[in-house]
Amino acid sequence: MFHPARSRKIACFYKTLAGAGVADVITSLITVSNQAGIQVLDDFNALQRNAAAVQVSPENWLPWNFRE
Question: What is the mean pLDDT of each run of 10 residues along the chain (68 residues)?
């Protein structure tokens, strides 16, 4: 598991600014999911399985709103 401070230290090594941004979002989701007591893989799998619903109303799929 990456610690957010560690992620910031290595962010300058990503090939593009967009890649660094994506990594930052993923790291943030992992951190928030862990703090909310959510299994990260369950959360990410639910996002992938329900991609269409996530695009329609992403606010319902934030880690603190996640329920199976």
Answer: 57 76 83 82 89 93 71
